[in-house]
Amino acid sequence: MSATAPLENKENSEANSKWLDAHYDPVANLNTFSSCIALADLNGDGESKLVVGDLGTGGCNMKLKVYKGTTLMTDNTLLDLPTGLTAFLMDQNEPRTPAVAVASGPFIYVYKNLRPYFKFTLPPLEVNSLELEVWSQAKEDKIDPVTLKEMLEGIRGKAEVPLSVRSLKFLMLEPQEMETFVNLYKNQPIKRQTVITCIGTLKKNMADDDAVSCLVIGTECMELYILDPEAFTVLAKMSLPSAPAFMDVTGQFDVEFRVTVACRNGNIYILRRDSKKPKYCIEPSSQPVGLVRVNKNIVVGCTQESLHGYTQKGKKLWTAFLPAPITTMGVMDHKTRGYQAVLVGLANSKVHMYREKNLVNIVKTPDVVTSICFGRYGREDGTLIMTTKGGGLVIKILKRTVVFDEKDSTPGPPMAQSIKLNVPKKTKLYVDQTLRERENAVGMHRAFQMDLYRLRLNAARAYVKVLESSLSPMSSSVSEPLRMNAVVQGLGPSFKLTLNIQNTSACRPAINLCISFLYDQSLYSMKTAFFKIPLLVPGLNYPIDTFVECLSDKGISDIIKVFVLREGKTAPLLTAHINMPVSEGIVMS
């Protein structure tokens, strides 16, 4: 019984899962990110291959690997760390096989038919004129290496144009290594080169899947370049306020396009075809760690374990909170089903799938996912490919009979709140009233404003009358802000009268106050009709009690007036009218 239980649980979990476990290689030795992984039909035979830019150990053994099925087909050595990888069609020649562009340092290596085809180098940057002069003096042996270092340090602290890589490396050397470095490089021209931080593709003039695409690259010098797919010349150049980290491109270059860029300053910028600088700016609450586009909306993952949705103009739509930090993000675009979602890899070895802000599926992985890619692999359309932190390769296939629930699987409000109300159709009376309001809008507005002003005027007049006659239970004096309310208790003929007085001042106490009662002495009698009020501390309630005796047996009642005065003054600060109830008891003569 105990031996078969784990097997039954495994079978049940596989039956309930929406994915088939196609392949898992824990020792594939792949060290890569989502920006360096792509799926492409490299041979034009209808079978898509997996192209991976492997970072190796970070300093050596960088390779461009191509997988077919579960086996490694080819691998090419890369000279530097890859920062991005993409597959694109660069011409209309038959057969229509895509090229692979690998961004590495200041270069883009283009591979056609898995062979090196072209190498593009970023345009050189302006070199500091003072730096050129200093190195020319070192070339002519006019200054020694120590003086050269001092002059370069002075230039670095004041110059607007940064120093070249050669000068920065020279400033890092030990004194005994400087002379050898100067003799080795002083006769070579100085170049200042930037590096590529992200890469993407943009359709040239058609939106078809097999249309020719341009390369879009972001650089460390805070600029975007759009390259011609055949001549690899710069078609457009755009500036950014900060160095780009993540990028998404949509549209066609010859028609209209949008470039969404997440930069290192924590902001997200949106550029359009006719703008050389960002048109819109999004400022998330924390640093972005991933950016993808789903339909016309932008989904951004942030360091505060949250996922945010924005429109193309930067308006925030929704926010979803995650149980763990984000490690990678990707898009699930199942074109045969017309289904799109966001795949979010988390640090708890899970991949969450979101459709808008609703969590529709959770995929458990054997290790933390570092890169994720969804698309056609081989001849299977719904393939999910992931690499793990330990270098493993995970391949899962979406079941063809699977149906994703649109409801959110996370705990929260019930689905009934998202169901639209059955609003009845517009009646003829409603339509007639709407037409009347449209035709007489000016007159109706004027009548409404007149009634409103009349109401305000009457209220103001009544308020002024109350203040002038001191009939309000609240004091109108700025120097003595007081509040009073009265409570009458009893059935008669004896009543208990309680006055609750409060000083509403912020910090000033009220002193030298007294209370006086005015009443019909033929109906009522009071033992004490005059009180002295103690010091009133602001904010505290002071109850004052007295007793009223009803003298009439005819079942009539009257008003007792209460005045709060300052000693030595005749004008009351506060006035209250107490409606006495009818005595229900027997009046003793």
Automatic annotation (TrEMBL):
<dbReference type="GO" id="GO:0034451">
    <property type="term" value="C:centriolar satellite"/>
</dbReference>
<keyword id="KW-0472">Membrane</keyword>
<dbReference type="GO" id="GO:0007601">
    <property type="term" value="P:visual perception"/>
</dbReference>
<dbReference type="InterPro" id="IPR056419">
    <property type="entry name" value="GAE_BBS1"/>
</dbReference>
<dbReference type="GO" id="GO:0007608">
    <property type="term" value="P:sensory perception of smell"/>
</dbReference>
<keyword id="KW-0653">Protein transport</keyword>
<keyword id="KW-1003">Cell membrane</keyword>
<keyword id="KW-0007">Acetylation</keyword>
<keyword id="KW-0716">Sensory transduction</keyword>
<dbReference type="Pfam" id="PF23304">
    <property type="entry name" value="GAE_BBS1"/>
</dbReference>
<feature type="domain" description="Bardet-Biedl syndrome 1 protein GAE">
    <location>
        <begin position="482"/>
        <end position="584"/>
    </location>
</feature>
<dbReference type="GO" id="GO:0060170">
    <property type="term" value="C:ciliary membrane"/>
</dbReference>
<dbReference type="GO" id="GO:0001895">
    <property type="term" value="P:retina homeostasis"/>
</dbReference>
<dbReference type="GO" id="GO:0005119">
    <property type="term" value="F:smoothened binding"/>
</dbReference>
<dbReference type="InterPro" id="IPR032728">
    <property type="entry name" value="BBS1_N"/>
</dbReference>
<keyword id="KW-0966">Cell projection</keyword>
<dbReference type="GO" id="GO:0061512">
    <property type="term" value="P:protein localization to cilium"/>
</dbReference>
<keyword id="KW-0206">Cytoskeleton</keyword>
<comment type="subunit">
    <text>Part of BBSome complex, that contains BBS1, BBS2, BBS4, BBS5, BBS7, BBS8/TTC8, BBS9 and BBIP10. Interacts with the C-terminus of RAB3IP. Interacts with CCDC28B and ALDOB. Interacts with PKD1.</text>
</comment>
<dbReference type="GO" id="GO:0005113">
    <property type="term" value="F:patched binding"/>
</dbReference>
<dbReference type="GO" id="GO:0034464">
    <property type="term" value="C:BBSome"/>
</dbReference>
<keyword id="KW-0969">Cilium</keyword>
<dbReference type="InterPro" id="IPR028784">
    <property type="entry name" value="BBS1"/>
</dbReference>
<keyword id="KW-0963">Cytoplasm</keyword>
<dbReference type="Pfam" id="PF14779">
    <property type="entry name" value="BBS1"/>
</dbReference>
<dbReference type="InterPro" id="IPR011047">
    <property type="entry name" value="Quinoprotein_ADH-like_sf"/>
</dbReference>
<dbReference type="GO" id="GO:0015031">
    <property type="term" value="P:protein transport"/>
</dbReference>
<dbReference type="GO" id="GO:1905515">
    <property type="term" value="P:non-motile cilium assembly"/>
</dbReference>
<feature type="domain" description="Bardet-Biedl syndrome 1 N-terminal">
    <location>
        <begin position="19"/>
        <end position="272"/>
    </location>
</feature>
<keyword id="KW-0552">Olfaction</keyword>
<keyword id="KW-0844">Vision</keyword>
<dbReference type="GO" id="GO:0005930">
    <property type="term" value="C:axoneme"/>
</dbReference>
<keyword id="KW-0813">Transport</keyword>
<keyword id="KW-0970">Cilium biogenesis/degradation</keyword>
<protein>
    <recommendedName>
        <fullName>BBSome complex member BBS1</fullName>
    </recommendedName>
</protein>
